[in-house]
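Notes taken during the Thursday session

The instructor put the following on the board and asked us to keep it in front of us for the whole hour. The protein is Putative pterin-4-alpha-carbinolamine dehydratase. We were told not to look anything up and to reason only from what is written here. First, the residues (214 in total):
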Amino acid sequence: MNERVTRQAASDAVGGLGWRYILGTLRAAVPVGSLFQGASVALQAVAACGEEADEHLAIDVRVDRVVLTLQTRRLATVTATDVGLARRIAASGLRTEPGDLQLLEIAIDASDIGAVRPFWSAVLGYAEGGPAEPLADPAGQGPAVWFQQMETPRAGRNRVHVDISVAHDEAPLRVAAALKAGGRVVSDARAPSFWVLADPEGNEACISTWQGRD
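Then, after some discussion, the predicted C-alpha cells were revealed:
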C-alpha cells in the first residue's frame, strides 16, 4: 500500500473529504473549542489510523483546532496508505476542513550549493539529508530550507526568499491579498506552481502549490 501517488491523484482522492495536498503531505484541520476537546480529537484520529499512525500521522493540537498531517515518513512523500488513512479518519466522523493551512520554506540562491549547504545545516541544527533534498528540522517545527542554483551573481536582488506552500484553491486568494497589501507580481510564468511576488522594497516571496509539478 506504500505506492507513491502523484500530486494530482492525491489531491483528487482527498479533496472531497476536507483534506488538501500541500508540499508532499496531506493536511486537514478539525475545529475544536478547547485543548481538552483537541486531545479527544487527536485520540480519535490515532484510533482511526490504528498501528499505522506512528509511521504516517502527525498531530498539532491547538486551543481552536487540531491540524492533522499524513505522510509516509520513510519515503517523505504521500502514498496510497496515506490516502487510505485520510479516508478512515473521515469515516470516523471527524469534521475535517482545509481552512488556513500552509507550510513555510526558505530558499537560498547560491553559486556553489555544496559550499554553503553545510554552513546552514550547522547553524540551524538541521539534518542535511540527500544533496537534492531540503534541509529539515529534526524536531519538525521549523521551515524547510532549500537551495536554488544561481548561474550568475545577482547584485540587484536579495538572495534569500520565503516560499509559502498553500492549498491550490487558497493560492489565488493569497496572491490577491498580497497585491492589495501593496505587493506586486514579479512573475506568474510558472503559475499555478508558484507566483513570485515582491513587497514595495523589492523583497521577494513565492506563493506555491502542488499544481503543475507532476
